[in-house]
Specification:
By secondary structure, this protein is mainly α. The protein contains seven helices and no strands. The chain has two domains: 87 residues, Orthogonal Bundle (Hypothetical Protein Yqey, Chain: A, domain1), CATH 1.10.1510; 52 residues, Arc Repressor Mutant, subunit A. Helix 1 runs antiparallel to helix 2, helix 3 packs antiparallel against helix 4 and helix 5 packs across helix 7. The longest helix has 24 residues. The chain is globular.
Protein backbone atom coordinates (compact mmCIF):
# COMPACT_ATOMS: atom_id res chain seq x y z
CA UNK A 1 0.00 0.00 0.00
CA UNK A 2 1.35 3.47 -0.83
CA UNK A 3 2.62 5.82 1.86
CA UNK A 4 -0.37 8.16 1.60
CA UNK A 5 -2.69 5.37 2.77
CA UNK A 6 -0.56 4.02 5.60
CA UNK A 7 2.04 5.96 7.55
CA UNK A 8 2.19 4.13 10.89
CA UNK A 9 4.47 1.39 9.57
CA UNK A 10 8.07 2.31 8.78
CA UNK A 11 8.53 2.92 5.08
CA UNK A 12 11.17 0.20 4.63
CA UNK A 13 8.87 -2.34 6.30
CA UNK A 14 6.05 -1.32 3.99
CA UNK A 15 8.35 -1.79 0.98
CA UNK A 16 9.36 -5.27 2.12
CA UNK A 17 5.72 -6.24 2.65
CA UNK A 18 4.76 -4.89 -0.78
CA UNK A 19 7.70 -6.78 -2.31
CA UNK A 20 6.30 -10.04 -0.95
CA UNK A 21 2.82 -9.19 -2.27
CA UNK A 22 4.24 -8.39 -5.72
CA UNK A 23 6.12 -11.71 -5.64
CA UNK A 24 2.92 -13.63 -4.80
CA UNK A 25 0.95 -11.80 -7.52
CA UNK A 26 3.68 -12.14 -10.13
CA UNK A 27 3.72 -8.37 -10.77
CA UNK A 28 7.13 -8.15 -12.46
CA UNK A 29 7.17 -4.36 -12.90
CA UNK A 30 6.29 -3.66 -9.24
CA UNK A 31 8.70 -6.37 -8.13
CA UNK A 32 11.55 -4.86 -10.15
CA UNK A 33 10.87 -1.30 -8.95
CA UNK A 34 10.59 -2.27 -5.27
CA UNK A 35 13.69 -4.48 -5.42
CA UNK A 36 15.67 -1.57 -6.86
CA UNK A 37 14.32 0.77 -4.16
CA UNK A 38 15.22 -1.64 -1.35
CA UNK A 39 18.67 -2.22 -2.86
CA UNK A 40 19.35 1.53 -3.06
CA UNK A 41 18.09 2.02 0.50
CA UNK A 42 20.34 -0.80 1.76
CA UNK A 43 23.34 0.69 -0.06
CA UNK A 44 22.61 4.12 1.43
CA UNK A 45 22.28 2.59 4.88
CA UNK A 46 25.66 0.87 4.51
CA UNK A 47 27.21 4.15 3.35
CA UNK A 48 25.63 6.02 6.27
CA UNK A 49 26.70 3.37 8.78
CA UNK A 50 23.51 3.76 10.78
CA UNK A 51 19.85 2.78 10.52
CA UNK A 52 17.78 4.88 8.11
CA UNK A 53 14.72 6.78 9.27
CA UNK A 54 11.79 7.56 6.96
CA UNK A 55 13.34 10.92 6.01
CA UNK A 56 16.49 9.16 4.78
CA UNK A 57 14.43 6.58 2.91
CA UNK A 58 12.41 9.35 1.24
CA UNK A 59 15.64 11.05 0.16
CA UNK A 60 16.78 7.79 -1.50
CA UNK A 61 13.37 7.45 -3.19
CA UNK A 62 13.54 11.04 -4.47
CA UNK A 63 16.97 10.30 -5.93
CA UNK A 64 15.65 7.18 -7.63
CA UNK A 65 12.61 9.08 -9.00
CA UNK A 66 15.00 11.67 -10.44
CA UNK A 67 17.04 8.90 -12.09
CA UNK A 68 13.87 7.44 -13.64
CA UNK A 69 12.92 10.88 -15.01
CA UNK A 70 16.40 11.31 -16.51
CA UNK A 71 16.20 7.84 -18.06
CA UNK A 72 12.79 8.61 -19.53
CA UNK A 73 14.19 11.77 -21.12
CA UNK A 74 17.24 9.92 -22.50
CA UNK A 75 15.13 7.08 -23.92
CA UNK A 76 12.77 9.58 -25.55
CA UNK A 77 15.73 11.24 -27.26
CA UNK A 78 16.97 7.81 -28.32
CA UNK A 79 13.53 6.94 -29.73
CA UNK A 80 13.04 3.92 -27.44
CA UNK A 81 9.31 3.93 -26.54
CA UNK A 82 9.57 0.43 -25.04
CA UNK A 83 12.12 1.60 -22.46
CA UNK A 84 10.24 4.87 -21.88
CA UNK A 85 7.13 2.87 -20.96
CA UNK A 86 9.11 0.62 -18.58
CA UNK A 87 10.74 3.60 -16.83
CA UNK A 88 7.41 5.46 -16.57
CA UNK A 89 5.77 2.42 -14.97
CA UNK A 90 8.59 2.10 -12.43
CA UNK A 91 8.53 5.85 -11.74
CA UNK A 92 4.79 5.65 -10.99
CA UNK A 93 5.49 2.90 -8.44
CA UNK A 94 8.24 4.93 -6.75
CA UNK A 95 5.96 8.01 -6.65
CA UNK A 96 3.29 5.93 -4.85
CA UNK A 97 5.59 5.75 -1.82
CA UNK A 98 6.66 9.39 -1.76
CA UNK A 99 4.73 12.02 0.18
CA UNK A 100 2.37 14.20 -1.84
CA UNK A 101 4.44 16.88 -3.57
CA UNK A 102 3.66 20.51 -2.79
CA UNK A 103 2.20 22.79 -5.45
CA UNK A 104 4.09 25.88 -6.59
CA UNK A 105 1.63 28.06 -4.64
CA UNK A 106 2.30 26.10 -1.43
CA UNK A 107 6.07 26.44 -1.89
CA UNK A 108 5.72 30.19 -2.55
CA UNK A 109 3.60 30.60 0.61
CA UNK A 110 6.14 28.68 2.74
CA UNK A 111 9.04 30.66 1.23
CA UNK A 112 7.32 34.01 1.88
CA UNK A 113 6.69 33.02 5.49
CA UNK A 114 10.36 32.10 6.04
CA UNK A 115 11.57 35.25 4.24
CA UNK A 116 9.41 37.30 6.61
CA UNK A 117 10.61 35.34 9.68
CA UNK A 118 14.30 35.86 8.92
CA UNK A 119 13.80 39.39 7.57
CA UNK A 120 15.60 38.69 4.30
CA UNK A 121 15.78 41.75 2.04
CA UNK A 122 17.55 40.61 -1.11
CA UNK A 123 19.40 37.85 -2.99
CA UNK A 124 22.39 38.17 -0.66
CA UNK A 125 20.36 36.70 2.19
CA UNK A 126 19.20 33.65 0.26
CA UNK A 127 21.37 31.36 2.40
CA UNK A 128 19.50 32.33 5.58
CA UNK A 129 16.17 31.60 3.92
CA UNK A 130 17.23 28.31 2.32
CA UNK A 131 18.82 26.95 5.53
CA UNK A 132 15.51 27.40 7.34
CA UNK A 133 13.18 26.48 4.47
CA UNK A 134 14.82 23.29 3.15
CA UNK A 135 14.35 21.22 6.34
CA UNK A 136 10.65 22.21 6.37
CA UNK A 137 10.09 21.13 2.76
CA UNK A 138 12.45 18.13 2.58
CA UNK A 139 10.82 15.38 0.54
CA UNK A 140 7.76 17.52 -0.19
CA UNK A 141 9.19 19.57 -3.06
CA UNK A 142 12.20 19.40 -5.39
CA UNK A 143 15.18 21.38 -4.12
CA UNK A 144 15.76 23.00 -7.50
CA UNK A 145 12.20 24.34 -7.55
CA UNK A 146 12.47 25.67 -3.99
CA UNK A 147 15.76 27.36 -4.91
CA UNK A 148 14.25 28.96 -8.02
CA UNK A 149 11.24 30.27 -6.10
CA UNK A 150 13.35 31.75 -3.28
CA UNK A 151 15.65 33.40 -5.85
CA UNK A 152 12.63 34.82 -7.67
CA UNK A 153 11.03 36.14 -4.46
CA UNK A 154 14.23 37.75 -3.19
CA UNK A 155 15.03 39.32 -6.58
CA UNK A 156 11.57 40.69 -7.23
Amino acid sequence: MPLQQETRMALIDRLREDLNQALRKGDKTRLSAIRLLISNINNAQIAKGAPMDDGDVIAVMNKQAKQHRESIEAFRKGNRPDLVAKEEAELAIVLDYLPQQMSREEIVAAARKVIEEVGAQGPGEKGKVMSKLMPQLKGKAPGAEINAIVTELLSG
